[in-house]
Amino acid sequence: MIDYICLGMLMQGKMSGYDIKKTVEQSVGLFFTISYGSLYPALKRLVEGGMLTEEETNNSKNKKLYQLTETGRGSFLQWLGEPLQSNRREYLLKIFFYDCLDPAIRKNNLENFLFELNRNIAQIGAVQQIVSGQLAQLENKDDYYYRVSVMHYGLRFYQMEKAWLEQIIEKRDYE
Amino acid sequence: MIDYICLGMLMQGKMSGYDIKKTVEQSVGLFFTISYGSLYPALKRLVEGGMLTEEETNNSKNKKLYQLTETGRGSFLQWLGEPLQSNRREYLLKIFFYDCLDPAIRKNNLENFLFELNRNIAQIGAVQQIVSGQLAQLENKDDYYYRVSVMHYGLRFYQMEKAWLEQIIEKRDYE
DNA sequence: AAGTTCATGTAACCAGTTACATGATTGT
DNA sequence: ACAATCATGTAACTGGTTACATGAACTT
């Protein structure tokens, strides 16, 4: 994950590790955080793997600027075009960088993700039906209020994502 | 985290590791998953720490039943009563077990969490104002659509949580 | 002069997952 | 007989975080 955060942020241009962390905090910081303990080793790894070039500045502060190589750029765009998956909110990170993606692939991936979302919503709805049926037969059903509420959270969560996705698929404006 | 999942699930009564995993999958499985590679070592640790007792069944299948000790029960309830925090969705796990918590503490913790949520919503709203102001001055603002959309996701997300929390604070029924 | 921000880095730790290994029991 | 499910466990790995260590430059 951290590797793609770095590559993606560097699509904007040269940056130092410090700058990358700042940028992440100010943009996707709500959902993704990075620590120097993972960031600097990642940058080193990416340079060794030919994804980035490292440029020392003589601006005294020992600052290093990283830049994408063509390989790095290709690797990032390859990752970006892969289907959106729910794992660890990776889809949110991908969509954050979606301005870089080919519009046709973008549309396709967003619609597929919406399709899956709808399936999930239907499934939770079905489970909810069963559960509330079972619950109705219990005399102490009040004891399960909070357990059930978490299922309800799931439903609301997916419905929120659905509405949001539909909005961005249509590229509607934000009020 | 896994420790409290185990303790919480065992509040219902004796269970095997296998049972715990099943129960987790069928309840909070949408948001929390556990693997045997973390579950069995956790159970071992909890027994060693005096939180659980282990009982071998001679029912051939080598099944072991785990049961909360008074220490384990106390430790769980202590954790459960601590303030709700956004970290790694731990709050969702706590609320799942909230039927076990003293109603006064429960109400207090839920309301504090709602208060924080409102602060977050206000803050994102403010950031959004600034960003859309800056964006309006750009000629290529279309290039930032998806980056901005992730900020909007954040807002929707918190608003969803807010509505959900308000519902459970009032203990309103689910339709 | 003191405090904050800029800037890089490492070592120890942590909370898990994945893949593997094993074997009994139940259902078809 | 074969597959699925029940049942436990470990070793290697992964993807990080925390705490520490260092020091220059800017701000007040």
UniProtKB/TrEMBL annotation, chains A, B:
Pfam families found in the cross-reference section: PadR, Vir_act_alpha_C
Using the record's annotation, list all stretches that form the Transcription regulator PadR N-terminal domain: 7-74
The lineage's top-level taxon is Bacteria
Q: Which SUPFAM superfamilies match?
A: Winged helix' DNA-binding domain (SSF46785)
Using the record's annotation, list all stretches that form the Transcription regulator PadR C-terminal domain. 88-170
Instruction: List, alphabetically, the InterPro entries matched.
Output: Tscrpt_reg_PadR_C, Tscrpt_reg_PadR_N, WH-like_DNA-bd_sf, WH_DNA-bd_sf
PANTHER family with a match to the protein in the record: NEGATIVE TRANSCRIPTION REGULATOR PADR, TRANSCRIPTIONAL REGULATOR YQJI
The name this protein goes by in its record? PadR family transcriptional regulator
Q: Which organism is it from?
A: Paenibacillus soyae
